[in-house]
């Protein structure tokens, strides 16, 4: 009987020691994550987050006709303040510019939704893109010039050039905003009063000639272009001004 009691006591003691051991181990593994989480992590915006007021049903068809890459090192201080080794280790601020063509009858709300959609489509393909500018046109022929319909900048606080090295490293999008500039004419265009294809062509011909021949007096260039199209210089000026106001309006 004494032997049986000894065996039982030994078994119970073993169970108690084991329970204490696993209890200590369990508490240690629970504390470790708390210690790790004591350092606050940046709030990362989900990739599918859209700004307030976005309505996907308003998105119109668009076509990207030109993409430009303006990536630079993500700087936290003036470039001259970095050593060559520091610059080498800085993350890249990936900056993209897209030029798109949209329908002429698009409304302001539709254009905003479409510009947002371009940003989301492109950053979904490459989540490392840190800044985006989208320029909108209604004609592909104008895509190498000033935007004619509107633009959006997607960046920290809506400011191009606001990406820090920490943002570029962590893809923290919590401070990002969409900064729009939509032309007044958008949504108010009378298609019947739009310049004709020929008028656009005449405007482009004069515009390119003036910049291609800066040493030639402008009046001589106007006379030459007017003769090529069989119109007077007065009519040429009127066409040029009308197209210019349409583009910039």
SS class: alpha+beta
Uncertain segments: 1-48
What is the H-and-E element order? Answer: HEEHEEHEEHEHHH
**Residues in helix, %:** 40-55%
CATH fold title of the largest domain: Diaminopimelate Epimerase, Chain A, domain 1
- Please compute the radius of gyration using only Cα atoms: 32 Å
Please work out how many helical segments DSSP would assign. Answer: 7
β-sheet strand percentage: 15-25%
What's the N-to-C terminus distance?
105 Å
Reported CATH architecture of the largest domain: Roll
Question: What is the average of the pLDDT values?
Answer: 83
Number of E strands: 7
Shape assignment: flat
What does this structure look like?
This protein is an alpha+beta fold and 249 residues long. The chain has three domains: 1-39; 56-182, Diaminopimelate Epimerase, Chain A, domain 1, CATH 3.10.310; 195-248. It is 44% helix and 16% strand. Helix 3 (108-125) links the parallel strand 4 (95-101) and strand 5. The longest helix is centred in the first third of the chain and has 36 residues, at 2-37. The radius of gyration is 32 Å and the shape is flat. The model is unreliable at 1-48 (pLDDT under 50).
């Amino acid at each position: 009987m004494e032997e049986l009691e000894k065996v039982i006591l030994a078994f119970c003691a073993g169970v108690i020691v084991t329970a204490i051991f696993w209890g200590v181990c369990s508490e240690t593994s629970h504390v470790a994550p708390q210690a790790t989480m004591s350092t606050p992590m940046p709030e990362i915006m989900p990739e599918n987050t859209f700004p307030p007021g976005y309505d996907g049903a308003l998105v119109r068809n668009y076509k990207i006709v030109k993409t430009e890459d303006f990536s630079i090192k993500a700087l936290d201080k003036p470039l001259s303040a970095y050593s060559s080794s520091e610059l080498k280790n800085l993350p890249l601020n990936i900056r993209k510019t897209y030029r798109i063509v949209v329908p002429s009858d698009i409304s302001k709300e539709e254009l905003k939704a479409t510009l947002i959609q371009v940003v989301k489509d492109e950053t979904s393909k490459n989540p490392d893109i840190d800044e985006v500018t989208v320029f909108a046109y209604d004609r592909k022929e104008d895509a190498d010039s000033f935007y004619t319909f509107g633009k959006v900048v997607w960046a920290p606080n809506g400011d191009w050039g606001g990406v820090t090295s920490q943002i570029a490293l962590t893809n923290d999008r919590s401070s990002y905003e969409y900064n729009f500039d939509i032309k007044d004419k958008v949504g108010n265009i009378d298609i019947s009063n739009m310049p004709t294809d020929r008028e656009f062509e005449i405007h482009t011909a004069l515009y390119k000639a003036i910049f291609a021949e800066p040493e030639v007096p402008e009046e001589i260039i106007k006379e030459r272009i007017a003769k090529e199209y069989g119109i007077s210089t007065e009519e040429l000026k009127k066409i040029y001004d009308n197209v210019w106001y349409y583009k910039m309006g």
